[in-house]
């Protein structure tokens, strides 16, 4: 039979996974809006951002109450602190999904730009990074978390490819500057999603191993 603290820890895990599902769905929709040039889908992401924000507040309050009343130690303490870090990153991913959606709406009714493949690749890499980070948290899998850290290097490289391609294109095609800038900003939001997913992976490693590996998660 679970102790009261174990039950509360299980509840906290489920709440974080619920928020993670919302964030993943928002990111997925925003990326579909970008690639499919679907302004209605983009608007859905913007309209539902409050749900992610609300969940962050609820989980933060729950975790703080658990810290105060249960006074957990060792692994339980790490888990609660790790969850509090994770939800901050999930909320920021929701914000980046909104940013991408806003760019999508501005681009939806304008001629598509060339060099779309690197941006589409970046979209898939970053979405998979988030999904892998969430699964690592769900399964307490530090090896899976480490894969997210490795993938972040690929995301950074793709972001730079998008940037270089579009800057070159703007030099040659000045009427395309505004569209190119919106695409670059969408790419930067995706790069930040990669960083935030890496942060979540680092939290998983902290929970599992008790080692703070910020900025060096594949060296634990």
TrEMBL record:
A Pfam family: PhoU
Cellular component terms per the entry's GO annotation: cytoplasm
Cellular compartments annotated: Cytoplasm
Coiled-coil ranges (or none): none
Record key words, sorted: Cytoplasm, Phosphate transport, Transport
UniProt KW Plastid keyword: no
InterPro entries (alphabetical): PhoU, PhoU-like_sf, PhoU_dom
Domain of life: Bacteria
Record's keyword annotation contains Transport: yes
Residues in PhoU domain copies: 16-103, 119-204
Function: Plays a role in the regulation of phosphate uptake.
Protein name: Phosphate-specific transport system accessory protein PhoU
Source species: Oceanidesulfovibrio indonesiensis
